[in-house]
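Notes from hallway chat w/ T.B., transcribed later so I don't forget. T.B. wanted the structure written out for a chain they're using in a teaching module, and asked if we could keep both sequence and structure tokens in one place. Agreed to drop them here.
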Amino acid sequence: MRTARATAGAAFCAALVLCGLVYEHPLVLGALCLATLAAGRLAGAGAQLSRAAKLCLLAAPLVVAINLVANRNGLTVFWRLGEVPPFGQLDLTLEALAYGGALALRLAVMVLVAALFGAAVDVDALLLGARRVSARSGLTAVLAVRLVPVLARDARRLDEARRCRWDGGGSGPAARLAVLRAICAGTLDRAADAAAALEVRGYATAGRPRRARSPWSRQDLAFAAAAAALIAIAVAGRVAGIASFDAVPALDVPTRSAELALAAALVVTALAPFAARRGNAR
């Protein structure tokens, strides 16, 4: 995936996100999670995807618990808690539990795809294409992406310096406000220095650059075709009514051969471009 051009990789990630938004069926969402994890490992981003998966495992119980308490819909009550102030009569239903699990799986798909995008897609190359639309907007986006980690490191160092003072640097909102004020001041100084450096280099008079044409490689075509195929499969399955999911008023989660075929098709399509890794030369 890293050998493909940024636009093809971004389209592939966007197609995975679209599939996660179109379906709520746990089988399909689980298949998308597995496909994204496998794609990350094949793309050499297994460590980043593992960290994202741990974050999803931590967030999933919270999502399920909130939906279980807040969602009052459903007919299958498995636990009556009685009167619980300030919620009133609180009954936990199987439908609310299932819908919370589907939401957790959908969140996992989004987080994993975002981790795959950040680890395997060249963001600089993607932002480079924005110059054709607006050179200044593309430059602003590139600088913002580059300066955010720098400002985060500055914040950590300032906070460590505050805590190393003889009086401990204080605590509470006042101390955090002092660190925030120092970060904002440093941000303005960095912005002024960056603006002056860019003006000296002639960026103030920069126009729309020429389009740099390069032939599409096998990997570019493979990921672009996979993105189109994922969207086509998701839309066709939705139109055909496959993998429907209803949690209100009664739980209806069909798991037939059509749902299994849809999940398998999404996984195979998502992993198919990695078979074209041989012959990386453009």
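Follow-up for T.B.: Strands lie at 77-84, 88-93. Might be a good example for the class.
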